[in-house]
Model the fold of this input.
Amino acid sequence: MSIMEKPQAVAKMHRLYRNIKKNGGRIGTNLRVLELVYSNACNFKCEHCSTRAPLGENADELMPLDKVAQLADEAHELGIVEWNMHGGELLTNKERLFELVRVIKPERFYVFLTSNGFLMTRETAEELAEAGVNRVSISIDSFNPKVHDAFRGIKGAYERAMQALEYVKEAGMDPFMNITVGHFNAFSEDVENLCRYSYEHGYKTFINIAIPSGNWQGHLDVVVDDRDRAHLMELRKKYGNIHRDLWNPFDKTNEGVLGCQTMSKLYVTPSGDIFPCSFMHISLGNVYEQKLRDIIDYGYSIRYFHDHSEKCLAGEDLSFIEKYMVNKKMSVMEPLDAREIFKEEDYIK
Done:
C-alpha cells in the first residue's frame, strides 16, 4: 500500500506542508510523528542503545492492542501524519507486529518500522508493504562489517542489514539507512562512505546524532559541535538524500531547518508515558490516565518545547543537556517526571 493509496495520510501531509510554509519553514507547534515503542525485547545488545539501557524488569512490557488502537485514533484526530513502530526489535515476533500494523489502521498514516534488519527476509518485506508499511529504517553503524558487528554484538549483522535494505527497496517501500553521527565520527571516512553507498544504491540516509543518554548517559564528548553540524549540512547538499529530524524535508534547496522536533515527534513507551522526543526520557503524562491532546497541551506549555530552537535540545544544546539530562537517572522505562524537574520560570506565562 503506497502512500498515494492513502488519501487520508496524503491530506494530512499536505496540511503539514502548508502549515510549515506559513510558519516560515519552521515546525512551530505542528504535530508530525508518533513513535511507539511497542516492546523493548531485542535480539541485539548495541553499545549505544537508549531503549534497553538500563535494562529493567519490565523491559518486555507491551501496550495492549486495544489501547494502541485508541491511541492511533487520537493521533489521527490531531492530524499526526507519521506513525513509527520500533523497539527493541519488533521482527522478533512477526505475528504480533502485523497485528500492530492492522489495529492502527495504516491507511491513515505514513507508517514506518525501525529495525536492525537481522530478521528481515524478502517475504517479510513484501508482507509489510502489503500490510501498509511505507518505510523501513535499517540501522548501520559502520561501513566496516567487523566494526558494525562488534557494535551490535552479533556476527553477520552487517551483511543481514545491508540485504534488508535491498529487500525493502524491492518491495516498494522507502529504504532508509539510519546512521549515528557524533563528535567522534562526524568527519570520518566511514560516515562519508555510508552516505555515498546509500546514495548510489537508491536509499535514503537518516542521521541520528549521538545523544548523551542510555548507554552514553553523561558522555558529553559524543555531542556534535558547530563544525560537525556544518559538515553534516555539506553532506546533505552533496548527496541530496540525507535527512535529520531538525531539517525541513519539504525544502528542495537542502538548506531549510525546521527546528528541534520536541513535541512534534512524540514518543510513547510500552507503559504509556509520553516523552517530548525519543532521546529525552522525561514523561509529560501517561495515555492510560490522560487524553493525548491534554498531554500535548501540557508539553507545549513548557517554553523549551514551545519555542523554536535551531539545535536539537537533547543532542546539541549543551545548556539544556547539562541542566536536565546530565547525572539524571532516567531511562525509557524509568523516566523523570516533567512536573518535578521543570520550575515555574520554565513555563510559558
Summary: Confidence is low (pLDDT under 50) at residues 53-57. The radius of gyration is 19 Å. The chain has one domain: 3-346. The first strand starts at residue 33 and ends at 37.
